[in-house]
Write a structure and sequence with these properties.
294 residues; alpha/beta; N-(1-d-carboxylethyl)-l-norvaline Dehydrogenase, domain 2; 2 domains; 7-stranded mixed beta sheet; 12 helices; 50% helix; elongated; oxidoreductase; 6PGD_dom2
C-alpha cells in the first residue's frame, strides 16, 4: 500500500523502514530536512493515491492537534488519518469529529515497541470504525510482530489510545517492582552478584519478562548503575491512567504508587529510580540524567 508518515523521529523513522522492508511505499515528512522525503504536508498528500492514508507520529497535544487540522484541510472524503502518537484518549473524539465533518476517517492507534520495534515489530492497539481500520490493515499487518501484537480495541474513537494508556500504567508498576527489588538486593550485604541474580530470573520463573531482560542488560553494562541519576520522567500516560481510575472508581493502588514514586525521584536521588531510568533508556531510548543531583 501507499502511506504517508508524519514525524520521523525514533519511532516514526523505524516504522518507515519496517514498512518499506515489507514492500509498502512510504512518503515521509518531518521538520528535519535530513529525515524527510518531501518538503511539506502538501507535497506528502499530493504524492499519495486515493484513498489516502496518513499516519501521524508527532508529540501529543498541540503538535498533534495542529497536524490533524492541517491534514483536514488537505485530504478528501474517504481518506484516513491515523494518530499513532501517545495522545490522550479524550483528544480522539475531537479529532474524529473534526475530520468526520469532511468525510475523512480517523483511527487512533497506541504503538508500543520503542527502539526495538524495527526488529521485533510493534504492538498495536487501534480504535475506529471497521471501514477505516480496514484501509490501514496492510500497514498494521506489516508493523506488528509475526505472531499477535495487534488488536482492534473498539470502534469508538479513543479505544486504541485508552488501551495503550492502561498498558503504560501497567508498565509503570512492573518497572517499579523490579526497581525496588534491585534496590533491596543492593542494600543488603548478602547477595554477592546482583546482576547474575536478575539474569537467573529470566528463565523458568513467573516474573520473567522483556522488562527484566532489559534491566539485566543495563546491570551488565553498569553493575551499580553509578552512571545514572535516580530521576525518572513520566510521559503522561501514567497520570492519565490514574485519572481514569479515579473517574471510574476503579482501585489502582499499585499503578498510582508507581507514578508517585517517579515524583519522589525529583526530590531525592533514589536508587530505585536509577533502575527505572535504565529500563526506560533500554526499551525506548528515553533520555537519562547522568551524574549526581545538584
Amino acid at each position: 500500500m501507499d502511506i504517508g508518515l508524519v514525524g520521523l523521529g525514533k519511532m516514526g523513522g523505524n516504522m518507515r523502514t519496517r514498512l518499506r522492508q515489507a514492500g509498502h511505499t512510504v512518503v515521509g515528512f518531518d521538520f528535519d530536512p535530513a529525515l524527510r522525503d518531501v518538503d511539506s504536508l502538501e507535497a506528502l498528500v499530493e504524492a499519495l493515491p486515493s484513498p489516502k492514508v496518513v499516519w501521524v507520529m508527532v508529540p501529543h497535544g498541540k503538535p498533534t492537534h495542529d497536524t490533524v487540522s492541517q491534514l483536514g484541510e488537505l485530504l478528501s472524503e474517504g481518506d484516513v488519518v491515523v494518530d499513532g502518537g501517545n495522545s490522550k484518549w479524550t483528544d480522539d473524539a475531537r479529532h474524529a469529529a473534526e475530520l468526520g465533518e469532511k468525510g475523512i476517517g480517523f483511527v487512533d492507534c497506541g504503538v508500543s515497541g520503542g527502539v526495538w520495534g524495527l526488529e521485533n515489530g510493534y504492538a498495536l492497539m487501534c480504535g475506529g470504525s471497521n471501514e477505516d481500520v480496514a484501509k490501514v490493515q496492510p500497514a498494521f499487518d506489516s508493523l506488528k510482530p509475526t505472531d499477535g501484537g495487534f488488536v482492534h480495541a473498539g470502534r469508538k474513537p479513543g479505544a486504541g489510545h485508552f488501551a495503550k494508556m492502561v498498558h503504560n500504567g501497567i508498565e509503570y508498576a512492573m518497572m517499579q517492582s523490579y526497581a525496588e527489588g534491585w534496590e533491596l538486593l543492593e542494600a543488603v550485604d548478602l547477595v554477592e552478584d546482583v546482576p547474575a541474580t536478575f539474569d537467573s530470573w529470566r528463565s523458568g520463573t513467573v516474573i520473567r519478562s522483556w522488562l527484566l531482560d532489559l534491566l539485566t542488560n543495563a546491570l551488565q553494562d553498569d553493575e551499580h548503575l553509578e552512571a545514572l541519576r535516580g530521576y525518572a520522567d513520566d510521559s503522561g500516560e501514567g497520570r492519565w491512567t490514574v485519572e481514569a481510575a479515579i473517574d471510574n472508581a476503579v482501585p489502582m493502588n499499585v499503578i498510582a504508587a508507581s507514578l508517585f514514586a517517579r515524583f519522589t525521584s525529583r526530590q531525592e536521588d533514589s536508587p530505585a529510580m536509577k533502575a527505572i531510568a535504565a529500563m526506560r533508556n533500554q526499551f525506548g531510548g528515553h533520555a537519562v540524567h547522568s551524574g549526581a543531583k545538584g
